[in-house]
Amino acid sequence: MKKSILIFLFMFIFILFGKAHAFMEYFPAVKAGGEYKKQKFDNAATDYNKALEYKPNWQDASFNLGNTYFRQKKYDEAETEYNKIAETGTESLKAKAYYNLGNIAYQNGDLKKAEEFYKKSLRINSTDKDAKYNLELCKKEQEENQCQNPQKDKNKTENQCDNPNDKSKQDKDNQQQDKNNQQQDKDNQQQDKDNQQQDKDNQQQDKDNQQQDKDKQQQDKDNQQQDKDKQQQDKDNQQQDKDNQQQDKDNQQQDKDKQQQDKDKQQQDKDNQQQDKDNQQQDKDNQQQDKDNQQQDKDKQQQDKDKQQQDKDKQQQDKDKQQDKDKQQQDKDKQQQDKNKQQQDKNREKNWPKTIQEEQQEQQRQEEDKTKQGALRYLQNFDNFEKEHRKANSAKYLPRSASEEDW
C-alpha cells in the first residue's frame, strides 16, 4: 500500500512539473504579445527573448521578436531573426519573413534587394497583395531614380525618359496606383476592424493574465506543498534505503543458511543412501533369519511330537507300574484277609461260645475294616491317577514358543 502511494505521488509531481514547465515556456510569449499590442516594444522584446531561452527553436516567437525589432527600427537584429525563419521556418512564415526582409531593404534604400525579397515572398504566396504592391512600388522608384540620374545608365534612361509614350505609361501607373490606394484603404478599414477585435482580444488577454496570476499563486502554494512532500519523500527514501540495506543483510544471511542447508541435505542424502544399503543388508539378514526360524520351528515341532510320544509311553509305563502295585497290594490285602480270617478262626475257637450279639458286632467291625482298607486303596489309586493325569496334560498342552506362534 505504501509503495502504491509513493508511485502515485511521484506521478502527480511529475505531471505538475510538466505543466509548470509548459506554463513557463508559453507565459513569456503570451505576456510579450500583450506588451507588443500596447506598443511597449522594449518589454515585448525582453519577454520574447525569455520565451526563446525556454524554447530556442520556437519559430513563432522568433518571428514576433523580428517584428518587435523592426518596430524599434533595429533592422539588423530584425534581419537576423527573419533570416532564421527564411532558412528553417514553415512555408507561410518564410513568405512573411521574405516580405519583412524586403521592407528592411526598402528602409535601407536597397530597392533592388527589396525587389528580390518581394519576389521570393510571391513565389511562396502569390496572392499576397501587399507584396505585389511593394514590388511594383520598388520597380517604379527604381525607374524614377534612373530618370533623375541618367549618368548611371545612359542608354536606358535615354530610351525611358525621352520616349513620348512614357506619359501614357505614367498615367497607367497612376491609375494602378489609385487602385492600389483604394485597395490599401480597404485594407486599412479591415485593419481597423482587426484592431478593434485585437482590443477585445487584449481585454480577454488581460482577464486571462489575471487568471494566470491567480493560477500562478496557486501554483506557488502547490510548489511549496510539493517541496514539503519532497522533503518527506526524501526522509521516506532514506528510511527505505536503510530497510533495503537491512534486507540485503538478511538476504545474505539467508543465502548462507541455504548453502548450509544444502550441505546438510547432501550429507543427509549420503546418510540415507548408506541407511538404504544397511536396510537392504538387514532385509537379507532378516530373510535368512526367517528361514532359520522356520527350520527351528519345524525342528521344535518334531521335538514336541517326539516328546509327546515319550510322555505317552511313560504314561503307559506308569499305568503298567500302578497296575502291578495294585495287584501286589491286592495280593497283600488278600494275604492280610487270610491272616485275619485265620486269626478270627483262632479267636473264635478260644472265645467260643459267643453270643449272637457279639458275633454281629464282630462282623460289623470286620466290614468296617474292609471299608476303610478299600477307601485307603481308592485314595491311593486316585492320587496316582491324578499325578498321571497331570503329567499327561502338561505334555499335551505345552505353551508354544514365539517363533512357533508366528509360524
The CATH superfamily of the largest domain turns out to be Tetratricopeptide repeat domain
User: What's the CATH C level of the largest domain?
Assistant: Mainly Alpha
- Label the overall shape: rod-shaped
Would you give the CATH topology of the largest domain?
A: Serine Threonine Protein Phosphatase 5, Tetratricopeptide repeat
Strand content: under 5%
Helix content: over 70%
Q: If helices are DSSP runs of H or I spanning 4 or more residues, what is the number of helices?
A: 11
Number of strands: 0
Number of domains: 2
Order of helices and strands: HHHHHHHHHHH
Task: Identify low-pLDDT runs.
Answer: 18-23, 152-160, 401-407
The structural class is: mainly alpha
Mean pLDDT: 80
CATH architecture of the largest domain: Alpha Horseshoe
Specify Rg, calculated over alpha carbons: 74 Å
Distance between the termini: 71 Å
Q: What does the largest sheet look like?
A: none
Question: What does it look like?
Answer:
- The chain is mostly helical and 407 residues long.
- The protein has two domains: 2-149 and 168-216, Serine Threonine Protein Phosphatase 5, Tetratricopeptide repeat (Alpha Horseshoe); 311-406.
- The protein contains eleven helices and no strands.
- The protein has helices at 2-37, 41-54, 59-71, 75-88, 91-107, 111-124, 129-148, 154-161, 166-351, 356-396, 402-406.
